[in-house]
Structure formats: structure tokens, C-alpha cells
Design a protein that fits this description.
By secondary structure, the protein is an alpha/beta fold. The protein has eleven helices and 16 strands. The chain has a nine-stranded mixed β-sheet with strand order 11-10-9-8-12-6-13-16-15, sandwiched between helices. Strands 2-1-3-4-5 form a five-stranded mixed β-sheet. Strands 7-14 form a two-stranded antiparallel ribbon. Strand 3, helix 3 and strand 4 form a beta-alpha-beta unit. The relative contact order is 0.13.
């Protein structure tokens, strides 16, 4: 199962909204095949593993290990449970149940009805951690939310506005290695979200130009449509979802998807509902301070990744205030990265 989890990570950033599953097939205590989920629309892990077995007759005496319950419904591909039954694989070992309403125990039921021995819950906690995006989406009906920011040694995420107005240049807090790490993270998540001020002040591209991979969906909060067409986020180069209070579609930019929200009500809940509707399993919240603090205050976050760079601003925009369980501390050159979990 440990090997299944290892294999499954190969699907990070490509399988969503499908889960990234890993599968291993064992015959006489020897691994004879491995597989992981193909990019969305392609074969699932079990299919790839079964297809990779040269001598299919061995499957009748094999054990199939998989991180998540095999699907039992037709989606982009046929049910994996049916393929396992077709090849009369006698034993299936599963890490964690699939909470998807179209599966949720039905895959196991189908396998057992066909005479297959099914074992569930092997390395369950590790499998849950691996499938945290998929499980959060189906169990909590919202994406897995990762907060990310960089702060100075004295606790600021940006210098004072007067400084920026006098010298309008990028005030990088972190080094190039940390910035590349962020682009890697972007390629691993389905969406990236920023507020209006971040766009107006920084004009970010929110792409993955410093990493190989698929850019995430850009999600931009723009209550009154203050962001003009000359900003990168509205250039149409990457799919973009704009959340606004303006329902006048004559003001919309062609090629951009719009969702109208009530900014006077619970905004974070609405954002989660919209992202759930668009089948977004995970979102990276990149700021600014007001947007990050709003997610923290609402309790709607799962992970926080906080860089501390080797410089000070003395005054400016203060970093968000939060409490969480420290999971990991890492050094990236002159920077320190702390990873927290919402406890």
C-alpha cells in the first residue's frame, strides 16, 4: 500500500476532478504490475495496472492493492470494479473508502457479490492524507484550501504603500528557489485565488512559468469590476473565473467566466460553493492579507504554507494572524518554510 501511495503521487496536478490513485498487483508475493491514474479522462489506476500484466492468467491468483475503493459507475471510463471481476482477481486490498455518492461502498459490494475477498482500511490514515483533496471535496462539499504567503523577519507581507508609490518595484521577500517552489505548487492544485488589491498592485500572471506543468484556474475576487482588461488575469491566456457583485453582463470581458456573489453575506462560504460547483478539488489562496485573513477568520482552510524571508520592512502590511498545528519546517536557502494544519 505504501508503494501504491508512492505511485499515486505521479498523478498530482493532472487527474482532478478524479482522485490520484495508485495500484499494485501481486502474485506469489511478487509485484507483477503497477499503475496510477492517467490525466483526467484517461484510464484509472486499476485499468493501467491490469493492462500492464503480460500474462493475464496470473490475475486469477493475484491480489490487487489500491489506495481508494474501485469505482462502480460509468464516468469518462467504465467501472474499475467490473474489470477486476472480469479478470476474476480473487483478492482486493483497499486503503480508504470512496465517499463519492456514486461509489461509497458500492464498488466493494459489487466485488464481494462476485466472490472477491475484499480487505479495507490498510494504511488508512496515510491514504486519507494522500487523498485529502478528493476526500475534502466529497465529504465537506468544498475544495481543499491551502493558504500561502511570504513574510519578512519582522512580520510584514508588503512594504508601506508610501514606499511602493515612491519606488514602484517588486519587493521580493523570498529567494528565487522559494518562488520556483510556489510555481510547482500552482501546477499541483486546480485553482489559485487572489483578491482585487493584489491584482491592482502587483498585476500577477498567476501562471507556472518557472515550472513544468498545467497552470491552475485563476480565480479573482473583483466586487465592482475595478480590474481593467490590460491586467494579465483578464488576458484570456489561462482559464479564469471572476467572482463579482456586478450582474450586468455587458461589462464582462469575453473569454472570462463570471459568477455573481452577494458580497454582503458570508463570502467565503459562497466562494466554496462556487468552486464546488465548478468541480474544483483544491485551491491555493495567494492573497493579499485581507483575503487570507477572511479565510482564516471563517475557519475555511486546511493548510497554510508560510515563507519567512531574510529581510525586514520595519512597517507595512502585517502578515495574517492565525493558529494551527505546525507540521513541518524546512530551509530553502536563506528562507524558512513553515507548513501548518488547521486544527
Amino acid at each position: 500500500m505504501q508503494r501504491c501511495i508512492q505511485l499515486a503521487k505521479n498523478g498530482l496536478g493532472t487527474t482532478a476532478p478524479n482522485p490520484m490513485v495508485g495500484c499494485v498487483i501481486v502474485h506469489n508475493n511478487k509485484i507483477i504490475s503497477e499503475g496510477f491514474t492517467s490525466p483526467y479522462g484517461g484510464p484509472h489506476a486499476e485499468v493501467n495496472a491490469i493492462e500492464a500484466v503480460p500474462d493475464k492468467s496470473l490475475l486469477r491468483e493475484a491480489t490487487l492493492y489500491v489506495t481508494l475503493e474501485p469505482c462502480s459507475h460509468f464516468g469518462k471510463t467504465p467501472p474499475c470494479a467490473d474489470l477486476i471481476i472480469k479478470h476474476t482477481i480473487p483478492k482486493v486490498v483497499i486503503g480508504v473508502l470512496d465517499p463519492h455518492d456514486k461509489v461509497s461502498g458500492k464498488g466493494i459490494e459489487r466485488l464481494r457479490d462476485a466472490g472477491c475477498e475484499v480487505v479495507v482500511g490498510i494504511l488508512e490514515e496515510k491514504c486519507r492524507e494522500h487523498h485529502k483533496r478528493f476526500l475534502t471535496y466529497h465529504e465537506k462539499m468544498r475544495p481543499y484550501i491551502i493558504l500561502k504567503w511570504a513574510q519578512t523577519l519582522d512580520g510584514y507581507i508588503a512594504p508601506d504603500k508610501s514606499v511602493r508609490n515612491t519606488v514602484p518595484e517588486p519587493y521580493w521577500i523570498t529567494n528565487t528557489h522559494s518562488r520556483q517552489r510556489v510555481h510547482q505548487w500552482r501546477s499541483e492544485e486546480q485553482a489559485i485565488l487572489v483578491g482585487t488589491q493584489t491584482v491592482l498592485e502587483d498585476n500577477p500572471k498567476l501562471d507556472v512559468r518557472h515550472w513544468q506543468g498545467k497552470p491552475p484556474l485563476r480565480v479573482v475576487l473583483d466586487r465592482n469590476l475595478k480590474i481593467g482588461e490590460d491586467f494579465h488575469v483578464l488576458d484570456g491566456s489561462i482559464p479564469t473565473l471572476l467572482l463579482t457583485s456586478v450582474s450586468d453582463s455587458s461589462r464582462y470581458v469575453e473569454g472570462i467566466t463570471y459568477e455573481v456573489l452577494n458580497f454582503s453575506a458570508d463570502l467565503m462560504e459562497q466562494i466554496c460553493k462556487v468552486l464546488y460547483k465548478h468541480q474544483i478539488l483544491s485551491v491555493l489562496i495567494e492573497g493579499g492579507a485581507q483575503t487570507l485573513q477572511a479565510f482564516i477568520n471563517s475557519g475555511l482552510w486546511d493548510e497554510a504554507r508560510v515563507f519567512t524571508g531574510n529581510r525586514a520592512f520595519k512597517n507595512g502590511i502585517a502578515a495574517p494572524k492565525f493558529s494551527g498545528k505546525l507540521l513541518q519546517t524546512a530551509s530553502i536557502g536563506t528562507d524558512t518554510l513553515h507548513t501548518y494544519q488547521n486544527d
